[in-house]
Write a structure and sequence with these properties.
With 191 residues, the protein is α+β, with helices and mostly antiparallel strands. It has helices at residues 4-18, 61-68, 96-105, 108-116, 126-139, and strands spanning 25-31, 37-43, 46-48, 51-57, 71-78, 83-93, 151-165, 173-180, 183-189. Helix content is 29%, strand content 38%. The longest helix is centred in the first third of the chain and has 15 residues, at 4-18. It binds flavin mononucleotide (FMN).
Protein backbone atom coordinates (compact mmCIF):
# COMPACT_ATOMS: atom_id res chain seq x y z
CA UNK A 1 0.00 0.00 0.00
CA UNK A 2 1.55 3.30 -1.11
CA UNK A 3 -0.85 5.69 0.59
CA UNK A 4 0.01 6.12 4.28
CA UNK A 5 -3.51 7.26 5.14
CA UNK A 6 -4.99 4.11 3.60
CA UNK A 7 -2.35 2.03 5.39
CA UNK A 8 -3.23 3.78 8.66
CA UNK A 9 -6.92 2.99 8.07
CA UNK A 10 -6.10 -0.68 7.52
CA UNK A 11 -3.95 -0.90 10.64
CA UNK A 12 -6.53 0.99 12.70
CA UNK A 13 -9.25 -1.46 11.67
CA UNK A 14 -7.00 -4.34 12.73
CA UNK A 15 -6.16 -2.58 16.01
CA UNK A 16 -9.86 -2.11 16.80
CA UNK A 17 -10.35 -5.83 16.26
CA UNK A 18 -7.31 -6.98 18.22
CA UNK A 19 -6.50 -4.61 21.08
CA UNK A 20 -8.19 -5.46 24.38
CA UNK A 21 -8.82 -1.78 25.10
CA UNK A 22 -8.25 1.72 23.79
CA UNK A 23 -6.93 1.09 20.27
CA UNK A 24 -7.55 4.81 19.79
CA UNK A 25 -5.26 5.76 22.71
CA UNK A 26 -2.32 7.73 21.40
CA UNK A 27 0.60 9.51 23.06
CA UNK A 28 0.64 13.19 22.19
CA UNK A 29 3.97 15.01 22.48
CA UNK A 30 4.15 18.79 22.52
CA UNK A 31 6.87 21.28 23.34
CA UNK A 32 6.61 24.61 25.10
CA UNK A 33 7.98 27.95 23.91
CA UNK A 34 11.45 26.98 25.22
CA UNK A 35 11.37 23.66 23.36
CA UNK A 36 10.82 21.58 26.50
CA UNK A 37 8.84 18.46 25.62
CA UNK A 38 5.93 16.87 27.45
CA UNK A 39 3.82 13.88 26.54
CA UNK A 40 0.45 12.46 27.61
CA UNK A 41 -2.19 10.11 26.26
CA UNK A 42 -5.28 11.29 24.39
CA UNK A 43 -7.95 9.48 22.39
CA UNK A 44 -8.08 9.73 18.61
CA UNK A 45 -11.60 10.87 17.75
CA UNK A 46 -11.30 11.33 14.02
CA UNK A 47 -8.84 11.03 11.19
CA UNK A 48 -8.71 11.57 7.45
CA UNK A 49 -6.79 13.27 4.68
CA UNK A 50 -6.73 16.54 6.61
CA UNK A 51 -5.34 15.11 9.83
CA UNK A 52 -5.76 13.35 13.17
CA UNK A 53 -8.20 14.81 15.72
CA UNK A 54 -8.33 14.75 19.51
CA UNK A 55 -10.38 16.74 22.03
CA UNK A 56 -9.32 18.34 25.26
CA UNK A 57 -9.69 21.06 27.82
CA UNK A 58 -7.98 24.07 26.28
CA UNK A 59 -6.86 25.55 29.59
CA UNK A 60 -4.35 22.78 30.23
CA UNK A 61 -0.66 22.36 29.61
CA UNK A 62 -0.94 20.72 26.18
CA UNK A 63 -3.08 23.64 24.99
CA UNK A 64 -0.56 26.16 26.38
CA UNK A 65 2.22 24.30 24.55
CA UNK A 66 0.25 24.21 21.31
CA UNK A 67 -0.54 27.92 21.63
CA UNK A 68 3.19 28.67 21.83
CA UNK A 69 4.35 26.00 19.39
CA UNK A 70 1.62 24.56 17.12
CA UNK A 71 3.43 21.33 16.24
CA UNK A 72 2.94 17.89 17.74
CA UNK A 73 3.89 14.26 17.47
CA UNK A 74 1.51 11.33 17.97
CA UNK A 75 2.53 7.78 18.80
CA UNK A 76 0.32 4.71 18.63
CA UNK A 77 1.57 1.44 20.05
CA UNK A 78 -0.71 -1.49 19.28
CA UNK A 79 0.91 -4.09 21.51
CA UNK A 80 -1.09 -7.11 20.39
CA UNK A 81 -0.16 -6.44 16.77
CA UNK A 82 3.41 -5.44 17.68
CA UNK A 83 3.04 -2.28 15.67
CA UNK A 84 3.89 1.36 16.13
CA UNK A 85 2.80 4.41 14.14
CA UNK A 86 4.50 7.79 14.51
CA UNK A 87 2.80 10.91 13.15
CA UNK A 88 4.19 14.44 13.15
CA UNK A 89 2.78 17.70 11.89
CA UNK A 90 1.37 21.15 12.40
CA UNK A 91 -1.61 21.54 14.70
CA UNK A 92 -4.72 23.68 14.32
CA UNK A 93 -8.06 23.99 16.10
CA UNK A 94 -10.96 22.08 14.62
CA UNK A 95 -13.97 24.26 13.77
CA UNK A 96 -16.45 25.19 16.51
CA UNK A 97 -19.11 23.22 14.60
CA UNK A 98 -16.91 20.11 14.68
CA UNK A 99 -16.23 20.48 18.41
CA UNK A 100 -19.94 21.11 19.07
CA UNK A 101 -20.92 17.98 17.16
CA UNK A 102 -18.43 15.77 18.98
CA UNK A 103 -19.30 17.29 22.39
CA UNK A 104 -22.99 16.62 21.75
CA UNK A 105 -22.20 12.95 21.06
CA UNK A 106 -20.58 12.44 24.49
CA UNK A 107 -22.38 11.06 27.52
CA UNK A 108 -24.06 13.61 29.77
CA UNK A 109 -21.65 12.74 32.60
CA UNK A 110 -18.67 13.41 30.33
CA UNK A 111 -20.24 16.70 29.29
CA UNK A 112 -20.73 17.72 32.93
CA UNK A 113 -17.17 16.63 33.71
CA UNK A 114 -15.88 18.95 31.01
CA UNK A 115 -17.56 21.88 32.81
CA UNK A 116 -16.16 20.77 36.16
CA UNK A 117 -12.58 20.14 35.13
CA UNK A 118 -9.85 22.69 35.16
CA UNK A 119 -6.70 21.11 33.76
CA UNK A 120 -4.60 24.20 34.37
CA UNK A 121 -4.84 24.28 38.16
CA UNK A 122 -4.56 21.53 40.78
CA UNK A 123 -7.82 21.02 42.70
CA UNK A 124 -7.44 20.75 46.45
CA UNK A 125 -9.43 17.54 46.77
CA UNK A 126 -11.40 15.04 44.73
CA UNK A 127 -14.46 16.28 46.66
CA UNK A 128 -14.05 19.75 45.17
CA UNK A 129 -14.15 18.23 41.69
CA UNK A 130 -17.23 16.16 42.55
CA UNK A 131 -18.93 19.24 43.96
CA UNK A 132 -18.21 21.08 40.71
CA UNK A 133 -19.75 18.21 38.72
CA UNK A 134 -22.88 18.43 40.89
CA UNK A 135 -22.97 22.24 40.45
CA UNK A 136 -22.84 21.73 36.67
CA UNK A 137 -25.56 19.05 36.92
CA UNK A 138 -27.84 21.49 38.78
CA UNK A 139 -27.03 24.35 36.43
CA UNK A 140 -28.00 22.41 33.30
CA UNK A 141 -30.90 20.45 34.84
CA UNK A 142 -33.55 19.72 32.21
CA UNK A 143 -31.50 21.21 29.37
CA UNK A 144 -28.84 20.13 26.90
CA UNK A 145 -25.31 20.66 28.21
CA UNK A 146 -23.57 23.17 25.92
CA UNK A 147 -19.90 22.79 25.02
CA UNK A 148 -17.75 24.77 27.49
CA UNK A 149 -15.84 27.58 25.80
CA UNK A 150 -12.56 26.10 27.07
CA UNK A 151 -13.16 22.66 25.54
CA UNK A 152 -12.52 21.67 21.93
CA UNK A 153 -10.54 19.75 19.36
CA UNK A 154 -7.18 19.94 17.64
CA UNK A 155 -6.12 18.47 14.33
CA UNK A 156 -2.58 17.28 13.60
CA UNK A 157 -1.95 17.63 9.85
CA UNK A 158 0.47 14.79 9.16
CA UNK A 159 3.75 15.75 7.51
CA UNK A 160 5.55 12.50 8.43
CA UNK A 161 4.03 9.09 9.15
CA UNK A 162 6.19 6.13 10.06
CA UNK A 163 4.91 2.56 10.34
CA UNK A 164 6.86 0.02 12.37
CA UNK A 165 6.06 -3.66 12.25
CA UNK A 166 7.75 -6.27 14.37
CA UNK A 167 9.36 -9.04 12.32
CA UNK A 168 11.20 -12.22 13.24
CA UNK A 169 14.86 -12.05 14.29
CA UNK A 170 14.54 -8.31 14.99
CA UNK A 171 14.36 -7.56 11.25
CA UNK A 172 11.71 -4.98 11.96
CA UNK A 173 10.16 -3.14 9.09
CA UNK A 174 9.95 0.65 9.08
CA UNK A 175 8.24 2.60 6.35
CA UNK A 176 8.56 6.36 6.47
CA UNK A 177 6.21 8.56 4.43
CA UNK A 178 6.99 12.28 4.10
CA UNK A 179 4.47 14.74 2.69
CA UNK A 180 5.48 16.04 -0.76
CA UNK A 181 2.91 18.50 -2.12
CA UNK A 182 -0.37 16.65 -2.56
CA UNK A 183 1.34 13.26 -2.31
CA UNK A 184 3.94 11.41 -0.27
CA UNK A 185 7.46 10.12 -0.74
CA UNK A 186 8.33 6.82 0.84
CA UNK A 187 11.55 5.37 2.18
CA UNK A 188 12.39 2.19 4.02
CA UNK A 189 14.40 2.67 7.20
CA UNK A 190 16.75 0.28 8.90
CA UNK A 191 15.34 -1.25 12.06
C1 LIG B 1 -5.85 6.25 27.74
C2 LIG B 1 -5.97 7.73 28.07
C3 LIG B 1 -6.74 8.54 27.24
C4 LIG B 1 -6.86 9.91 27.52
N1 LIG B 1 -7.57 10.69 26.64
C5 LIG B 1 -7.62 12.04 26.82
C6 LIG B 1 -8.25 12.87 25.85
O1 LIG B 1 -8.77 12.41 24.81
N2 LIG B 1 -8.26 14.21 26.08
C7 LIG B 1 -7.67 14.75 27.20
O2 LIG B 1 -7.72 15.98 27.35
N3 LIG B 1 -7.06 13.98 28.13
C8 LIG B 1 -7.00 12.65 27.96
N4 LIG B 1 -6.35 11.85 28.88
C9 LIG B 1 -5.70 12.53 30.03
C10 LIG B 1 -4.36 13.13 29.56
O3 LIG B 1 -3.39 12.10 29.40
C11 LIG B 1 -3.80 14.21 30.50
O4 LIG B 1 -3.66 13.69 31.80
C12 LIG B 1 -4.67 15.47 30.56
O5 LIG B 1 -5.26 15.74 29.31
C13 LIG B 1 -3.85 16.68 31.01
O6 LIG B 1 -2.80 16.91 30.08
P1 LIG B 1 -2.02 18.32 30.00
O7 LIG B 1 -1.79 18.75 31.42
O8 LIG B 1 -0.75 18.05 29.28
O9 LIG B 1 -2.90 19.29 29.25
C14 LIG B 1 -6.22 10.48 28.64
C15 LIG B 1 -5.46 9.64 29.48
C16 LIG B 1 -5.34 8.29 29.20
C17 LIG B 1 -4.48 7.43 30.09
Amino acid sequence: MDDPLALFDAWFVEARASEPNDPEAVALATADADGRPSVRMVLLKGHGADGFVFYTNQDGRKAADLGANPHAALLFHWKTLRRQVRIEGAVSHVTDAESDAYFASRSRDSQLGAWASDQSRPLDTRTTFERRVEDARARFEGADVPRPPHWGGYRVAAERIEFWQDRAARLHERRLFVRAGQGWTEGLLYP
